[in-house]
Predict the structure.
Amino acid sequence: MLLTLYGESSSYTPMHLDFFRKQAKNFLKDWQTQSKTVESDGFISYQYDWKFYDVGDLFFYYEFDDKDEQDIKLARAQHLIAKMAGFKKWDDLIHATETEQTLAELLLRRFRNAQNVQDWEEALLFSGVEQYGAEAVLEYARHYYGLNDAKEIASFAADKITVLQGKARSEALRQFDDEHNPSGSLRTDSSVFCTRCRKVFDFKKSKVIADNEKHLTMVVCKNYPACRGTYLDYKVLTPTVLYGEARVAELERGARAFPRIAMDSKVHCIHCGKEYLYNEANAVISPDDGEPYIACKHYPECDGTLIDMMPAEKTGGEK
């Protein structure tokens, strides 16, 4: 079950946007490894020591020329990321619906080279599912990449399942990402409540099981197999503090909602009585409803929120 931040009608989803920006930066990093070879006939070829995306392969697929390939800029990397995700340009991607952005993220997690992109595009064209809308395409993508099958693993008989141990288990938990955790609220240090067995435990104590035939994996309750609950049955008990671009995006959203405050405004928190710049405030995802909110700079010691932040020039307070 997907947990969205602002609902289906939203065209602005910080968690997805943070991911897309990171991928554009990863693409740029790979692009910056460029070296070129000039042949005796004057032909120039480019090579890349890539880690995230096979840059040269993708440039060829999208028919970029020499001039394009030398234009090493973040904006161009963003453009390529958007095209890989099925959009004409970056602006279309970041203003897409929640469903469209969820699909884009699912695809980008699997695209590394032109063959990955081409395989998906051909499968999508052959299926004819696009005519039924974004929800149908997303469901088809989950089926195509075997994600729906993964949800059924917990109910398989014991002889069809391997419980991962040691490094294999640790690596699976480390790779647990927004593909499986759209709200970003599950972290390795989260405290969770399994609604199946009604037990509380740390997420890092979860078990990871693998299907012996298809080798799909699934994060399940620490009490498996007595409890057949999976991470989809977890209720997160620990608030999640956002960092980086996700935090900034939420602060900017708050500033737009409260015109009395700008990003560089000095504010006074009426809860703790301290003053600070609004852009130093925290952004937190509530474990109760999965919604983000602005919290005092001194969270969690202070439980003040955006409505408790007053323009500092109108009040007196502790620095």
The chain has a mean pLDDT of 83.
